[in-house]
């Protein structure tokens, strides 16, 4: 709508997409946004519909007066002081009041002493006040907006108000930040948060988060709930707070790979200092232990243990004695699936070697040593001694007599299979002073065929050969290194399994990236492909000398067989080399969908053609960039199917 002042009255004209806008000096159209209020225009149209608008004079027909705001009087009168003279201006409902950021405000929000500019129109005898804007001075207001940025160093932030204008403010020690009646610190504010805010004398008085965003808080861990669904912590300088744990929260503890909730130290006085990440639903998604001040002693020898006082006296590797106290919170590791304090006491005899970690004098973990893990650096066959370097950098020289040797995939392994550089687990004898058996470590990649969750027995396939083993004692992790449960392992997944001898010690789910090749770099120096997965994420994979490219049947292909538009599945093998599988593609005529069996039926062109395909639960179904549902497909639609092991992972409607 265009309001025009003509002959002492206001006339309104409707505007639409057909209205043309011009200036008197040019025949080139201008945009509607280039029209400025209070400029002179000529309108040609029919009735109240404007078909042509021409700017005849671009000069803004306003006059401005600047001064210091004094007060508002009854009758909509505004008073300002200019050059020691008081002037009054009448305003009405059509007058716009703006703060110094250009955001609309109520007249009552202008503070006495603020510098203001009063603009009046000059095209009528009334000279109405049309705009009053605060130029500088004291701001008092409340509003709603979105946080754009936060700088805790300068105690300042930028808010985008509901009108789309940016406002900058600072805070002080009296400013108050909250979310759902919970006090927040400024560092917990995140850009993108929707807020209510109050400004008093140019300073933030309060900010209230209207909806949650991911945020972090710090404190000391007080308690982990008995069922593992909650944690209690004490915030720095605050009271105890309880939060629900999200499904599979990430735990980060320096020095511990794939840590679990049970690795956290919760205590009323000496709990872990943690940084906790909360999602918008206020659930804990990540717990990171900060600067854990614990000491670790590996290979310490028991001097004595007193069951009544739970005092354990030990001698470290440097023959220096120290004492720790065991309690019901000490994590115990020995040859049982259900360790107890009473159960380990009989093992704490003089000379027994243990690994211990402790905080002050309180034992956090106590592990009876049954084996040493490390890399073989020397084998003295004459003296029958083997030297290994542990992951912690400790060098151990251990004697052996006639040790048994185990290696996955080899039934008659012997000492000759142990080489310099081999990763091994050296199992000790009963007196812990010699090698009883040598378990060669190896990592093998398998495809999961079946998982028996009751017995923990897994059936896997590699190079067409099926085998079985147990995961009951294996550390299980997801493709991001986060600890997972046995229930998270399913048929069709790829696993990297690390064996100690013939027993699985660890298993990690391998990340599979399925999607469309967007670029192929065939340069000899650094060949690679770029893949956009079905979630829209793009990733580049280097194709080194150890990489493989195969078709869906497993036959070898070359880089020259790859092109932009190919659908592929990419993973990394146990050595970290990329394995690219090119998916099968077939164009079919759609017939129907069996929602019970999750199968797509297509129309045969020949009598021997396949006419049904299993649909993957996460299949990407689309037409161009538009995502479709399987139910939206109609009989006789032409569809392109992309298949992985015969299962549909993508349907592209033509």
Residues in helices, as a percent range: under 10%
Number of domains: 8
Q: Stretches where pLDDT falls below 50 for ≥5 residues?
A: none
Number of helices: 1
Radius of gyration, in angstroms, nearest whole number = 37 Å
Shape: flat
What portion of the residues fall into strands of 2 or more residues? over 45%
Main beta sheet strand tally, sense and closure = 7 strands, mixed
Helical/strand content category: mainly beta
For the largest beta sheet, what order do the strands appear in spatially? 14-13-12-17-18-15-16
Average residue-wise pLDDT:
90
Measured distance between first and last alpha carbons? 43 Å
Number of strands: 51
Structural account:
- The protein has 654 residues and is mainly β.
- It has 8 domains: 2-57, no CATH class; 62-136, Copper binding periplasmic protein CusF (OB fold (Dihydrolipoamide Acetyltransferase, E2P), Beta Barrel), CATH 2.40.50.320; 141-209, OB fold (Dihydrolipoamide Acetyltransferase, E2P) (Beta Barrel), CATH 2.40.50.320; 215-289, OB fold (Dihydrolipoamide Acetyltransferase, E2P) (Beta Barrel); 295-368, OB fold (Dihydrolipoamide Acetyltransferase, E2P); 372-510, no CATH class; 513-582, OB fold (Dihydrolipoamide Acetyltransferase, E2P) (Beta Barrel); 584-653, OB fold (Dihydrolipoamide Acetyltransferase, E2P) (Beta Barrel), CATH 2.40.50.
- 1% of the residues lie in helices and 54% in strands.
- It has a 7-stranded mixed beta sheet with strand order 14-13-12-17-18-15-16, with no helix packed on it. It has a 6-stranded mixed beta sheet with strand order 8-7-6-10-11-9, with no helix packed on it.
- Strand 4 and strand 5 (49-57) form a beta hairpin.
- The mean pLDDT is 90.
